[in-house]
Design a protein that fits this description.
1 helix, binds copper (II) ion, alpha+beta, 2 domains, 155 residues, six-stranded mixed sheet
Length: 155
């Protein structure tokens, strides 16, 4: 009788341990030492040009991951490590900066790509079709461009 009880106990213990180990294995794919740490994956944001009657200059920037507010300015958010692809052409010369008068791209007439290495607020506008830029369409460091313009918050 004692042997049967002992056998049943070891069977139950074995089943419990097998289930426990299987459970641990399935939940430890990210880290064996506790809760998995989510790693934000690098993403790419693509910005395009478009005609729009809602813009005072007839053009806007668009992106599937952003919103166009009144006046047409595009609002985007990103994380450090994200890459943004920005259009530039002779019709839409690209100005891009991080809120200072130092341009990252200054009137570029070709498409540009930029990977964010720092948090902050970044701005871009078209040299021909932005409106209301305090420093002028042909300059960087304007924080209030609308129409063909965009703002990216990087955190
Ligand atoms: Cu333009």
């Amino acid at each position: 009788m004692k042997r049967i009880v002992s056998l049943l106990l070891s069977l139950a213990l074995g089943t419990f341990l097998a289930g426990h180990l299987a459970c641990q294995q399935s939940s430890s794919t990210s880290s064996p030492y506790g809760n998995p740490t989510p790693t934000p994956s690098a993403q790419t944001i693509n910005v395009s040009t478009a005609s729009s009657g809602s813009s005072s200059t007839g053009y806007i920037y668009t992106s599937s991951s952003g919103t166009n507010g009144t006046g047409g300015a595009l609002t985007l958010s990103a994380h450090v490590g994200y890459t943004i692809n920005l259009p530039g052409s002779s019709l839409h010369p690209l100005y891009f900066d991080n809120g200072t008068s130092t341009c990252i791209f200054s009137g570029s007439t070709t498409n540009q790509s930029y990977t964010f290495s720092s948090t902050g607020t970044y701005y871009f506008h078209c040299g021909n079709h932005a409106s209301g830029c305090s420093a002028g369409n042909g300059a960087c460091g304007s924080t209030n461009c609308n129409a063909m313009a965009g703002v990216i918050t990087v955190n």
